[in-house]
Design goal:
six-stranded parallel β-sheet; alpha/beta; TIM Barrel; 325 residues
Length: 325
């Protein structure tokens, strides 16, 4: 069985890389851009290249599903790059292929706000996929860069599934029926995602959990079971959204970037503007075993549990990270 976490944005360090190994995490999709432009994103890739050089016994740059298998075989973690905003491609569709060449494998079409491509989940009006968005999705499909709609609004997300000829992903979000957060997804979106062969990664970010930091493992696993009934157990995995060891200033960058002079508190308030405490049963990469046991306790079979813990994402990687042949 392979373990894959399909979204983290930690304050990376040797300590965290070693915790990935302790938790037997074979692959992690890491955010390398929130609001960065192309050149700033390249600078972030340079940082990762240095980490790959310094810790080759712990991590390496993953680009295909086979790299996940190599990671398991060599007791390392494959690191896959992703963007939470299309800002790295700026207004240049040619940069889509360049970003894929540099190792990007997921790109959100929006991060909360309206972008050149689609509408984010915090906007009052959702106008759907834009003219440029349709062209960018076509190009992403061609080269094997996965469309991610985790922070996108309802119509835009449904539009993306209709426009895209390859399955899309919602890498880190939960169902709205379980917890009414702006970023959590409606039954309509989830059903369409399952029918189109897309993937949902369940988030452990407390603002998107029922009970927030006090969410229980049993409640989380019950939510997974109900979602499996709705969209199919083969279409679900994990995308923890773990932001381990990040200072609160990073939350400000995530929510505000350079677009506003005012602090955007998102779904929280000034009193909980920073990173909320993680649930006690999931503090870091060493705790994936708790989720695996929780899934078994709630009634998932060994095969179903293996799928949710990583095999479903691995299949998705195999099918969607390379150019159409």
């Amino acid at each position: 069985m392979h373990r894959i976490d399909n979204l983290q944005y930690a304050n990376w360090s040797e300590k965290i890389f070693r915790q990935m190994r302790e938790g037997e995490v074979d692959a992690v999709h890491v955010t390398i851009s929130y609001h960065e432009n192309f050149r700033e994103t390249v600078a972030n890739i340079e940082k990762w290249n240095l980490w790959f050089e310094r810790f080759p016994d712990l991590i390496f740059h993953g680009k295909t599903g086979n790299d996940v298998r190599l990671a398991r075989k060599t007791n390392r973690t494959a690191i896959f790059f992703g963007f939470q905003n299309p800002s790295p491609i700026e207004d240049d569709i040619g940069l889509v292929e360049i970003c894929h060449m540099l190792g990007a494998r997921f790109m959100q079409l929006t991060y909360n706000n309206q972008s050149l491509l689609a509408t984010g989940c915090y906007e009052a009006e959702d106008t759907g996929i834009t003219r440029m968005g349709k062209q960018v999705i076509k190009e992403m499909n061609r080269i094997g860069l996965v469309v991610d709609m985790s922070h996108s609004a309802e119509r835009s997300t449904l539009d993306a599934m209709e426009v895209s000829e390859r399955p899309i992903a919602i890498t880190h979000a939960n169902p709205y029926f379980w917890h009414a957060a702006l970023r959590n997804k409606s039954d309509e979106v989830l059903k369409a995602l399952g029918q189109s062969g897309g993937m949902l990664g369940f988030s452990l970010y407390p603002h998107h959990l029922k009970g927030k930091s006090d969410c229980t493992l049993e409640s989380f696993c019950e939510m997974i079971a109900k979602t499996a009934e709705l969209i199919g157990v083969e279409n679900i995995g994990l995308g923890s959204d773990l932001c381990q060891d990040q200072p609160d200033s990073i939350v400000e960058w995530m929510r505000v970037g350079r677009w506003s002079k005012e602090i955007d508190y998102g779904e929280g308030s000034a009193s909980d503007a920073g990173f909320p405490p993680m649930p006690e049963w999931f503090q870091d990469n060493r705790d994936f075993g708790n989720i695996e046991q929780g899934l078994k306790d709630i009634g998932f079979s060994q095969t179903e549990t293996a799928g949710i813990m990583g095999e479903n994402w691995l299949r998705f990687y195999d099918e969607n990270f390379e150019a159409v042949k």
